Amino acid sequence: MAACEGGLDLVRLERLERRLQALEDAEAIRNLKARYAALCDAQYDADGIAALFTEDAVWESPGLGRFEGREAIRGFFRRAGGIFSFAIHYSLNGQITVDGDTAQAQWYLFMPCTAAEGNRALWRAGIDHEYYVRVGGTWMFHHKRSEPLMNASFENGWAKARFV
Hints:
Elements: H1 10-41, H2 46-50, E1 53-61, E2 65-68, H3 70-79, E3 84-87, E4 90-99, E5 102-115, E6 120-135, E7 138-153, H4 157-160
Parallel strand pairs: 1-7
Antiparallel strand pairs: 1-2, 3-5, 4-5, 5-6, 6-7
């Protein structure tokens, strides 16, 4: 085997570089997810959120809709403050798999929020299934699909009715 300075062989060095790149990519995706949540929690900054998605991205959530393309996603988030007047997005237990310039992840979402209609406090939870692509060296959302697990009133909680 060919050796490089310090006695490390090139194969081992290449393997370390690939592992480091995978760790850096997963961290960049975690940061992308955190930026998304922060922008949602800042009264749904539609322009900021749309900038995190590819031009041909898809955002979908049962009950809220399916939006194809960055402009449709921007349009939805311009109206989102009329759906939720308050929200805190907790993204938990992320499982990220990177494959070159594409990646996928699954996250648990826990979202205490207030429905604008009726000023109702809600507990929301679900699983986010996400696909990402690296565009010009930057990770972006390509497809984000939410799978609802509960949408319960604060007063009654989820034990009596998981969906209101």
